[in-house]
Design goal:
The complex is a heterodimer. By secondary structure, chain A is α/β, with parallel strands linked by helices. Chain A has 25 helices and 33 strands. In chain B, β8 and β9 form a beta hairpin. Classes of the chains: A alpha/beta, B alpha/beta. Bound molecules: flavin mononucleotide, iron/sulfur cluster (SF4) and FE2/S2 (inorganic) cluster.
């Protein structure tokens, strides 16, 4: 600690702290622009100049480390003169177009100008005008307003790790732009909007929608990946207009992924359901809740009474609230059905008994940053879990080894210490080689290198991601991952794509376990079993059947086979219209109270930011009323909190959970033909994201094309377009040749209209030239 | 007494050849130092005795600078030679590299030995093609002769040298911008601390010196620090090359002892062009404050002497200005230079240099306002001392000094919309 004096006040400051931090802790705010606590120090805006005793010139507080005995004046005449002079310089070429600037009202320059700016300008020359680069559909640019703090450039280089932005030009010609003049492709790009202290970089979707001071900020928790990033929904007249990060060092720090930031545009989609819908002889008609709810209850009751509870199943999307999962399984089990499923994009269930209580990291995201070895298997971490990837990246910058065994070499924003590119059916085998190498056996170069890094590490972590999850080989991959983990003293983190998978597992929305992993008296059918042996009645929660299933064809058949289908859905869907009997309009998580349980097992509750559109209602309320109408006990909840309290109590009662040991899962054989790799765009994961126009215009949006290795392309005769399919259905898509894809595989987009009729994109697939 | 140190070979034919340099005791010092494994600390003492100060502009004592390097610390260290020579009025480094490149190489090898660097870079201004060819040729000759490379003269000491060509930015002469540029980045000064001695090229400890500084070292070690000190005067050891330009009969480089009266230097350069009246002198390069002619005639050419006249020795670039020059126009030219050359990262410099240049331009073009002069003074004052590097000060100082000494010319311009000097039209 250093003892220093700031404005006459004696302050203890951490060694190595910069004056600006020490002063802030002591309650003295020093004006600043370029300084940001998460970025390297530029010391270039000069707004933070302060007077330091014995220093001949004012010093930048952001770049001056404290030292014992230092005496600092932050508001002495000398300091103020320097600060005011800098403010004058910043303003001379600034357009001062606050009335038409989106940043107005939340602009650092505007705010500080009140304290440090003059009333009348002394600048009588022409102002500088700067051209605006097109950075894509997310970030609007007005570069004449830029004050050259370079926060955006530093963020993109240091945190996003992509070096897409730069400041070419010298002196007055220096300007911020993307180096190659194109869109910014980073999955974290939107953070530059928050970082920009002026209105140079603003949110394009939010452009001219509202003034900052008209907005109400409502806390929320993002539900598009398992992190549960904390955010603010800024609302106006009952509409969510934008999302901003809500600081939480333990979760998202001060960042948001673009998906979490821009998904909310999907809330206002035209196909939101606003009114309960009933099917009768003449087709669909709108109805009131007082009619629709009894009808839904009756439908479920009929199935149970006539066909037995066993003939009812419930399916939920993996990004519903913990409360909804809890009530859904409670309702189903009370009706005598054990068939509750949320793993709609999982390709294999063989090892489900050995799964831990819930998937996830099993440690705080922060702890990742201190990790020393990461092995990603079937995991495109950067796009699946952008902010976890950021933590891994920081660890790598600190010397950790990141490694990958994947069917595609995805561009990484940090160097990988070792890499294997193999077909999905070979992922488990590649892991087995690493395990062998760890046990001292013979192994190939990369496997040996991986083993060495894992062995040397203190906390090796194997990350199994959504790419593995979507294949039929998941059981074998997880079993081998466990072998590797045991051999190196590490752990396995299974990270499914769903935004609230952990809550679904914990709340019992799985067929083989009750709440908190409790014993299920009857083991229900998992998704594949349901597909194989359909049931008579279905209760659907938050599902868009043609997009939310790994196997949309099987999902369609399941719906078709059912006699009665009750769907709680936020968005309209042709398949629901075709097969459902009652459609109840559902509030999204942005519009209802609920709880997200993240990768780290952290429970994060939120209140709805706005009311749902029309007659749409929160799922927990609908399920509660259905419980009442079905005369079930224990459905007398008045608030989401009460549901949560019951879930919590059940979890607390349950105590320690011990999964069954990992079964010996045989290494799969590679299919004889071409093997499919399902490509799930980060902007296809859930219904809201799929309806966000800015995300769908961004570079990570799904592309309706397949990719193969040049060698396979050669064998196929280098077609421009291919027909891919199983026996039942096929689709014609453009073919791109990409040497990053493992040979023998074809990457096929899932969750898009073009492939909606195909079966699960795993294992063998037929590929032929198409006209 | 002239041409004793860096220019000591200039009178010889093909002075840049290794054989000629060898003939003139070249590389003897390096050989001796390596053979005897001379104590680096003693060599630094020798430099301190010599009172050699940096010839790149800032005049920082070289011995002291070298002593900041942790010679024994593990890992790569670098010696970097600043041959960017961007300061308007300066052309001395160019001639050292043209006529005596081996002495620079020997100086860098000695520096490497003293600070523990096995690798050197010369950051050479890209427009200097002939100096580049001479220096590159000399490096190759030295390498072939075993004077560069590994295990020099069997001493176990490795040292090699590469030239990095700059691409014409004045700011890349600032030592940390220079390092960024070598690293392949945009040439932009770094905030200091950390100083290059702890965090320099590629983050490694680095010493940066000017060509003339480094080329002086072999002679200092050969003859002893005391010899060099006595060439000049206390605290201002040695000789210095002055690049005399502007209105003189014989512009050029003159290597003379520090402490030489300006009047003598002017004499060597043949006096003011056409016998006209001396109006002013910018004594150390365009960044240094202008000194009125009469005052200059009393000055001795050394760090302290010029400081007493309110200016700086800088890089020794003496710009002589005669009575025909319009000071407003001259300042407009200078201000435009700094406006163009600011790197743009810090606010006062990026914004202020443009402001100054525009106001002076306006005055020069007959559109000055009464309040402009106080404004200029104030804006320059708001830049000075508040920027990351000294370019901000360099832009401010000419403005302040021109206004201080020649305010009447500016006032005349504002009032009459044209020049006070001769018949130079206002819109020239
Ligand atoms: C804007 C600017 C330009 C500079 N240009 C040069 C240059 O061209 N050559 C040079 O030797 N030093 C230049 N310097 C000084 C260097 O930063 C540094 O002080 C010098 O190279 C150190 O060497 P010395 O101690 O031997 O003088 C410049 C400094 C500034 C602020
Ligand atoms: S003073 Fe000027 S040249 Fe130097 S760092 Fe700042 S902006 Fe760049
Ligand atoms: S905040 Fe310190 S210089 Fe910008």
């Amino acid at each position: 600690m250093a003892t220093i004096e700031i404005n006459g006040k004696v302050v203890e400051a951490r060694d190595g702290a910069m004056l600006i931090e020490a002063a802030a802790e002591a309650g003295f705010a020093i004006p600043h622009f370029c300084y940001h606590r998460k970025l390297t120090i530029a010391a270039s805006c000069r707004m933070c100049l302060v007077e330091v005793e014995k220093a001949p010139k004012p010093l930048p507080a952001c770049a001056t480390p404290v030292s014992d005995g230092m005496k600092v004046q932050t508001r002495s005449p000398k300091a103020l003169a320097a600060q005011k002079a800098v403010m004058e310089f910043l303003l001379i070429n600034h357009p001062l177009d606050c009335p038409i600037c989106d940043q107005g009202g939340e602009c650092d320059l505007q705010e500080l100008a009140v304290g440090y700016g003059g009333d009348v300008t002394r600048f009588a020359e022409g102002k500088r005008v700067v051209g605006d680069p097109d950075l894509g559909p997310l970030i609007a640019t007005e570069m004449t307003r830029c004050i050259h703090c370079t926060r955006c450039v530093r963020f993109i280089a240091e945190i996003a790790g992509t070096r897409e932005l730069g400041a070419p030009g010298r002196g007055e010609h220096m300007h911020i732009t993307s180096w190659l003049g194109g869109q910014v492709g980073s999955e974290l790009s939107g953070n530059v909007i928050d970082l920009c202290p002026v209105g140079a970089l603003t949110s394009k979707p939010f452009r001219f929608r509202a003034r900052a001071w008209e907005l109400n900020a409502r806390p929320a928790v993002a539900m598009h990946d398992g992190l549960g990033a904390n955010l603010w929904f800024d609302t106006l007249r009952g509409q969510v207009l934008r999302a901003r990060p809500r600081d939480n060092e333990a979760v998202n720090e001060c960042w948001l992924s673009d998906r979490d930031r821009f998904a909310c545009a999907g809330l206002h989609s035209d196909d939101r359901l606003r009114q309960p819908l009933l099917r009768d002889r003449n087709g669909w008609r709108e109805a009131g809740w007082d009619e629709a709810l009894p009808r839904a209850a009756q439908l479920l009751r009929n199935i149970v009474d006539n066909r037995g509870g066993e003939q009812l199943a419930a399916l939920a999307a993996p990004s519903q609230s913990a409360e909804e999962y809890y009530l859904l399984q409670k309702l189903l089990r009370a009706l005598g059905s054990p068939h509750i499923e949320h793993r709609l994009r999982q390709g294999c269930f063989t090892a489900q008994e050995a799964m831990p209580l819930m998937p996830g990291l099993g440690m705080a995201p922060e702890a990742l940053q201190a990790g020393d070895a990461f092995l990603m298997v079937g995991c495109h971490l950067r796009k699946e879990q952008p902010l976890l990837n950021h933590r891994v990246r920081q660890a790598v910058l600190n010397g950790a080894a990141a490694m990958a065994i994947n069917p595609v070499v995805w561009p990484s924003n940090y160097p990988l210490a070792a890499e294997q590119t193999v077909a999905p059916s070979r992922l488990a085998g590649a892991l087995a080689e690493v395990a062998q190498a760890l046990a001292g056996g013979e192994a190939g170069g990369e496997a040996a290198a991986m083993a060495e890094r894992l062995r040397d590490a203190e906390q090796p972590l194997i990350l199994v991601g959504a790419v593995a999850q979507m294949g039929e080989y998941l059981g074998a991959i997880l079993a081998q991952a466990m072998q590797v983990a045991e051999a190196c003293g590490g752990r396995v983190a299974f990270l499914p794509e769903g935004g609230n998978s952990a809550a679904a597992w914990l709340a019992g929305a799985v067929p083989h376990r009750g709440v908190a992993g409790s014993h299920a008296p009857t083991v229900g059918k998992h998704l594949r079993q349901l597909y194989a042996e359909p049931v008579a009645g279905l209760l659907l929660l938050g599902i868009e059947p043609e997009r939310d299933s790994l196997d949309p064809a099987a999902m369609a058949r399941l719906l078709e086979a059912a006699e009665g289908v009750v769907a709680l859905a936020a968005y309209d869907s042709p398949l629901l219209r075709e097969h459902a009997d009652v459609i109840l309009p559902l509030a999204t998580w942005a519009e209802s109270a609920g709880t997200q349980i993240n990768h780290a097992g952290l429970w994060q509750s939120y209140r709805g930011a706005v009311a749902a559109p029309g007659e749409a209602r929160p799922g927990w309320k609908v399920l509660r009323v259905l419980g009442n109408l079905l005369d079930l006990d224990g459905f007398d909840f008045n608030a989401a909190d009460e549901v949560l309290a019951e879930l919590r109590a059940a979890v607390d009662r349950q105590g320690a959970f011990a999964p069954t040991p990992w079964p010996a899962v045989a290494l799969p054989d590679a299919p004889a033909s071409v093997e499919a790799v399902a490509a799930l765009s980060p902007y296809s994961v859930d219904a809201m994201v799929r309806r966000s126009p800015p995300l769908q215009a961004a570079s990570d949006a799904p592309q309706p094309c397949c990719r193969v290795h040049p060698a396979l392309a050669e064998r196929l005769g280098r077609p421009q377009r291919v027909r891919v399919g199983d026996g039942a259905a096929s689709a014609v898509l453009a073919l791109e040749i990409d040497e990053r894809v493992a040979d023998g595989c074809i990457v096929v987009p899932t969750a898009i209209a073009e492939t909606a009729l195909l079966g699960a994109l795993t294992g063998a697939i037929s590929v032929e030239q198409a006209a | 007494m002239a041409n004793d140190v860096c220019f000591r070979l200039n009178h010889l034919d093909r002075s840049w050849a290794l054989a000629v340099y060898r003939d003139q005791h070249g590389y003897e010092v390096l050989e001796q130092v390596l053979r005897e494994q001379r104590d680096p600390a003693r060599l630094i003492d020798e430099l301190k005795t010599s009172a050699l100060r940096g010839r790149g502009g800032a005049g920082f004592p070289t011995g002291l600078k070298w002593s900041f390097m942790q010679r024994g610390a593990p890992g790569q260290k670098y010696i970097v030679c600043n041959a960017d020579e961007g300061e308007p009025g300066t052309c001395k480094d160019r001639d050292i590299m043209r006529y005596n490149p081996h002495q620079l190489i020997e100086g860098m090898a000695l520096a490497g030995y003293v600070i523990g660097a096995t690798r050197g870079y010369v950051y050479l201004r890209g427009e200097f093609w002939e100096p580049y060819e001479r220096l590159q040729g000399a490096i190759e000759e030295a390498r072939a002769a075993g004077l560069l490379g590994s295990n020099l003269l069997g001493s176990g000491f490795d040292f090699d040298l590469d030239i990095h060509l700059g691409a014409g930015a004045y700011i890349c002469g600032e030592e940390t911008a220079l390092l960024e540029s070598i690293e392949g980045k945009k040439g932009q000064p770094r905030y200091k601390p950390p100083f290059p001695a702890s965090y320099g090229l590629y983050g490694r400890p680095t010493t940066i010196n000017n060509v003339e500084t480094l080329a002086s070292v072999p002679e200092i070690i050969r003859h002893g620090g005391q010899w060099f000190l006595e060439l000049g005067k206390p605290n201002n050891g040695g000789t210095k090359i002055f690049s005399v330009s502007g209105h003189v009969e014989r512009p050029g480089n003159y290597e003379v002892p520090l402490g030489t009266p300006f009047a003598e230097l002017l004499e060597m350069a043949g006096g003011v062009l056409g016998g006209r009246r001396l109006k002013a002198v910018i004594p150390g390069g365009s960044s240094t404050p202008v000194v009125p002619g009469e005052r200059m005639m009393e000055v001795t050419m050394d760090y302290d002497g010029i400081a007493k006249a309110g200016s700086m020795l800088g890089a020794g670039s003496v710009i002589v200005i005669d009575e025909t020059v319009c000071m407003v126009r001259l300042l407009a030219r200078l201000s435009h230079f700094y406006y163009e050359e600011s790197c743009g990262q810090c606010t006062p410099c990026r914004e202020g240099t443009g402001w100054l240049a525009r106001v002076v331009h306006r005055i020069e073009h007959g559109q000055g306002r009464a309040e402009d002069l106080d404004l200029l003074d104030s804006v320059a004052g708001n830049i000075g001392g508040r920027t990351i590097c000294a370019l901000g000060d360099a832009a401010a100082m000419p403005v302040q000094s021109f206004l201080k000494h020649f305010r009447d010319e500016f006032e005349y311009h504002i009032e009459h919309g044209r020049c006070m000097v001769g018949a130079t039209p206002a819109h020239g």
